[in-house]
Amino acid sequence: MRPKNPRPATQPRTGKPARKAGRRHPLATIALLAIGLGLTGGAYAAFTTTTASAEPQVAAASQNSVDEGKKLFQANCATCHGLDAQGSSVAPSLIGVGAAAVDFQVGTGRMPMQMQGPQAQEKPVQFTDEQVKALADYVSSLAPGPSIPEQKFLDGKGDAAHGAELFRINCAMCHNVAGAGGALTEGKYAPPLTGVTAKHIYEAMVTGPQNMPVFNDLNITPQGKADIITYLKYIQNNPSPGGFELGNLGPVAEGLFLWIFGLGAIVALTVWITAKSN
């Protein structure tokens, strides 16, 4: 007699369906991922190991500069700006002003201030270049802010004509079209720009010291700032074609000069001729 439920010839005795030929094992994908991650991690570790020898030296030098700047700050600046540069009733906070603001204020001698007044007076610098850099590094370590400009924007090789246009639109109303400076309100003034280094001119534009507005890269691009510097250096290095420039104070000063000296000379000549005729 035949059995009631004969076993199919193709069905294995284990009761599981036969695996198709050439099909990958389910664990193969996990194995491939593990191998890939291992190779990637190994390559990254090898790369970081080869570059690690140079990085700690830079970081250590920077940290040394920051530590030195902190000591200088606490000894010379904390009285007004606070022990942690948080500001006080007599001085603003320096958190977020950046290295450019410190380099400008300290590098031009405006800080530390000699006395309270409408604005900080420029005076001989009280710190060495290394100390100024250390102070800038310390303040910039507190929070991000404008950095010291790159040398490529300070070489004076920009477009002087474009710089003259930008300066006339944005700066001449305070600094005079020739950069001779001018008076403001309440005892304040826009200083003359003759003899000012290109770095400090750039830093003043990005930090806005005293009453000066901030000209960020959206107002005037870095190349535009370089063009302004080129214009200022051009008029500084090229004498006035009209002769004696009377301080570049404009037509009012020139008219006053003609009124006093020109008309005075005519009156004196007339008196002399009259005296001779008698």
Automatic annotation (TrEMBL):
Keywords: Cell membrane, Electron transport, Heme, Iron, Membrane, Metal-binding, Repeat, Respiratory chain, Translocase, Transmembrane, Transmembrane helix, Transport. GO terms for molecular function: heme binding; iron ion binding; quinol-cytochrome-c reductase activity. The keyword Transcription does not apply. Its EC number is 7.1.1.8. Heme c 1 binds at C77, C80, H81. The chain crosses the membrane at residues 256-275. It is a multi-pass membrane protein. It is an enzyme of class 7 (translocase). It holds the Pfam family Cytochrome_CBB3. Residues 1-23 are annotated as: Disordered. Heme c 2 binds at C171, C174, H175. It catalyses: a quinol + 2 Fe(III)-[cytochrome c](out) = a quinone + 2 Fe(II)-[cytochrome c](out) + 2 H(+)(out). Residues 64-143, 158-236 form the Cytochrome c domain. InterPro entries: bc1_cytC-su, Cyt_c-like_dom, Cyt_c-like_dom_sf, Cytochrome_c_Oxidase_Subunit. One of its GO terms (cellular component) is plasma membrane. Its main location: membrane. Binds 2 heme c groups covalently per subunit. The cytochrome bc1 complex is composed of a cytochrome b (QcrB), the Rieske iron-sulfur protein (QcrA) and a diheme cytochrome c (QcrC) subunit. This is Cytochrome bc1 complex cytochrome c subunit. It comes from Leifsonia soli.
